[in-house]
Design goal:
- There is one protein chain.
- By secondary structure, the chain is α/β, with parallel strands linked by helices.
- The chain has 2 domains: about 10-40 and about 170-255, Rossmann fold (3-Layer(aba) Sandwich), CATH 3.40.50.10090; about 50-165, Rossmann fold.
- Helix content is about 40%, strand content about 20%.
- The strands form 2 sheets. It has a 6-stranded mixed β-sheet with strand order 3-8-7-4-5-6. It has a 5-stranded parallel β-sheet with strand order 2-1-9-10-11, with helices on both faces.
- Strand 9 (about 185-190), helix 8 and strand 10 (about 215-220) form a beta-alpha-beta unit.
- Helix 5 packs parallel to helix 6, helix 7 (about 175-180) crosses helix 8 (about 195-205) and helix 8 runs parallel beside helix 9 (about 220-230).
Length: about 260
């Protein structure tokens, strides 16, 4: 164990409970003790009306953009719940990230486009020549940033944005965070901007100063890094590539 690069290091994992295992298992394989404090919980949106309406008219879209595996799962569940059968022309699928593409493939979608890097900016570069004049469906989390729809609309695309799910803070998160910080934490991992903002909210509720003194912040990508800087916690390292293996490598690079 002592020969492993992260031996005796305690690493905070902030992913939703149902998504934490891949990161935690990878950290554990490198010798770390992952400390899971989920600050994100996936819940249904306030209303499924917009998503359901889009699914009933799926053949009118040229492209569907999926930004997370959670969006894939929501579409599959609502398609079944609504009894939607789409035998007409099917839109192309673009997925941000390997995990999203894999989830889409497992759900039976044929993914036509995955960007070189697993961030929204790379997707937009890939779509630059394809989006103009297209009708696009963007299924995402409620209260997500508007970079993708705003940029695509600027190219002349018609973009319908629908809430597929929402990120919420688990009720037990403040107590779990206090318990985690009662012992040493060497680094905290962040897989999205939401994980930063939600951890800051959890810390506030728990009465804990944020950012955490003496703890390295490790970011999965440039947007998450920017959010960390907005919260006065410059990342010690950023994953490259911007995925879970890259995040684990970034943690290892710091120790």
């Amino acid at each position: 164990m002592t020969s492993l690069p992260l031996a005796h290091k305690r690493i905070l994992v902030t992913r939703a409970a149902h998504q934490a295992s891949k990161l935690s298992d990878g950290l554990r394989a490198a010798g770390a003790e992952p400390v899971e404090v989920p600050v994100l919980e996936i819940r249904p949106p306030e209303s499924y009306d917009a998503l359901d309406a889009a699914l009933h008219n799926l053949s009118t879209y040229d492209l569907i953009i999926l930004t997370s595996a959670n969006a894939v799962h929501a579409i599959v569940e609502r398609t079944a719940a609504c009894g939607v059968v789409n035998n007409e022309r099917k839109p192309q699928i673009a997925a941000v990230g390997k995990a999203t593409a894999e989830a889409a493939g497992q759900a039976g979608f044929s993914v036509a486009l995955t960007p070189k890097e697993y961030v929204a900016e790379s997707l937009l570069e890939s779509l630059a020549d394809l989006a103009s004049g297209q009708r696009i469906l963007l299924a995402r989390a409620a209260i997500a940033r508007d970079l993708i729809p705003d940029t695509l609309r600027a190219t002349g695309a018609i973009v319908d944005v629908v809430d597929a799910y929402q990120n919420a803070i688990p009720q037990d998160a403040p107590a779990k965070l206090r318990a985690a910080l009662a012992s040493r934490i060497d680094a905290a991992t962040f897989t999205s901007s939401s994980s930063v903002t939600h951890l800051a909210d959890v810390a506030r509720v728990a009465g804990i100063a944020f950012p955490f003194s003496g703890v390295k912040a490790i970011s999965i990508g440039p947007i998450t890094s920017a959010t960390l800087r907005e919260h006065n916690w410059p990342p010690a390292a950023e994953a490259d590539p911007h995925d879970i293996p890259g995040l684990i490598a970034a943690v290892i690079s710091q120790f």
